[in-house]
Amino acid sequence: MKDQILVFGHKNPDTDTVCSALAYAALKQKLDINAKAVRLGEVNKETAFVLDHFKVEAPDFQDSVRPQLKDIKSGCTEVIKDNFTLKQALEVLTKANISSLPVVDESGKIETMLHVSDIANAYLEMSTMNIFQQFETTYENVAETVQGELINGSLPKGLISGKLLSLNNLNNGEGKDVVILELLKENIDKVKGQDIGLIIWCPINYEEEADLNGFDIPVLKVNNGFFKVFKLISQSVSVHSVMNRNPFYMFRTTDSVEYVEGLMKEADQTNFPVLDEEGHVFATIKNKDLQNIDRQKVILVDHNEKAQTIDGIETAEILEIVDHHKFGNFSTIEPLMIRAERVGCSSTILMDMYKENELLPEPAMAGLMLSAIISDTLLFKSPTCTQKDIDAAVELAKIAGVNAEQYGMEMLIAGASLGDKSPEDLINMDMKEFVMGEYKTALAQINTVDVKGILDNKDSYEKAIKEAIANKGYDLFVFVVTDILNNGSQGIVFGTATDLFERAFEVKLENDNVWLPGVVSRKKQLVPNLMAASN
């Protein structure tokens, strides 16, 4: 739904990124703006504790904002039913100004594509006398196509099995034939008793009405001439009987525009049906329709770097960024609103934005925002924490009805429980990519109360990190295990640029790891030190 603004934080979401997205979407909704929070990855244990505590559903997962075929604003929505006559099919094609359309069965499921050339080829193949044996149609279709008035009897049901005859070749009939004549009164005795399914009468102006009492053959009176009626009958043939079964391209509404564009260039096909999730035709599109799409409107919170954001961001319309990090390789093609402050948490900024709109968050949202601040500042112990963060937390705790210190410690301990996580899970749980000078760097961080337990399993982490380096081409991978009780972090470091880490913190790695007293913040300590050392 492109009129809905998506609000999201970074990949490998932490508590700030999830809670700030929810809180900002809630603010937008209070301002009658259609906004929805989404997440770009799995919710971690700490965030799950927070959402459960305040009874808030986790945002829906979203992996891309690349435009899909369902976002196209043009295209033809007409279809041809397989029981249509060729006349009806041509009328639909002409009205839609398109050369081909999908044919659907009675349940709406696509069968094939019908092109005007299929109809033209059918006309070329038609034998006037044997038309009903070559192609299927019904008496009802014939009557509707020639626009006749039934003046005697009732139309037979089902397909026509006989031939199309004039009075002159009546002897060639095979039964249940369709006979076209002009002078009914003069020739009524000739057709009486014949096995005729339908007479089509093309009266001449001076002819008197025939007496049809006791005449048991259905008669259809038309206002067109003899030869015009012959031509019209060829249009009464059913679409089903001229359909080809050649292979053709069709797409789904969930297919990306980028994917479809590539296939269209290779296809010997002009018009392409698009099916919805139920398999019904959503639209028929051409290559030019791919240029007529709605871009997804988005708001970024708690990040701004392309490597950390949603796939396909280059196709989206970025409306705003609310962040408390440094700005990296970020550019847009349009102006936008940026709200960035040197505080410890995005939710601290959001608290100001609520107040600027003369609003306060609801208790549950206040609890989420408080949790984000506690998480990002490690319960106000991180060097990133400012007085503004503390003031916001005090106010939010009051609205949420919790004790910030007591609740905060419960939250951090709940999030620090890592026993059910694999090494691969832990190094990716809160990992961000950076380009530092000439070095492609990954910084992963977890909070725990059991640093020793991590170090005892170091070989497993080494294997997982080296696999990530090989797969992603990192020059440096820093896995930071932060001790939330002892105010410091253990750095586990691998790659070809480990000397960068040693220069940044003026340390010497022993067995690929080192204790960093007082270092708890990626944003204010790890990233700045590494950036400075890379220059």
TrEMBL record:
* Record key words, sorted: CBS domain, Hydrolase, Manganese, Metal-binding
Q: Which cofactor does the UniProt annotation name? A: Mn(2+)
Q: Name one GO cellular component term.
A: cytoplasm
User: What PROSITE patterns has UniProt attached to this entry?
Assistant: CBS
Its recorded reaction(s) are: diphosphate + H2O = 2 phosphate + H(+)
| CBS domain mapped to chain residues | 72-129
Q: Which GO terms describe its molecular function?
A: inorganic diphosphate phosphatase activity; metal ion binding
Q: What EC number(s) has UniProt assigned to this enzyme?
A: 3.6.1.1
Q: What class of enzyme is it?
A: hydrolase
Q: Which domain of life, per UniProt? A: Bacteria
**Protein's recorded name:** inorganic diphosphatase
